[in-house]
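Extended Data, panel c. Modelled sequence:
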Amino acid sequence: MARRIVRPGAIQVQRRGVSRLPHLSEALSLVLGALGTLNRSSGVRTINTEMNGQPVALAMIEGALFGEDTEGNTTLDEITNGE
């Protein structure tokens, strides 16, 4: 079942000494940049599909699993071939 990501802190954008939450276009660029970086080491596959009649973009990261730390925050854990 799909779960929402839980993180206590948000990414802040700083410009001219003022911090703010990123605009949607900036947040999307950050996500794509992070997926591109992961793709260099583990491989990332993407697929467009639908869920409940709405479009959904999925990114699958090879060799990784979502987890949860002791405080309930979402983690992304690298899985090696030996595990």
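The first strand starts at residue 13 and ends at 15. This feature is highlighted in the accompanying rendering.
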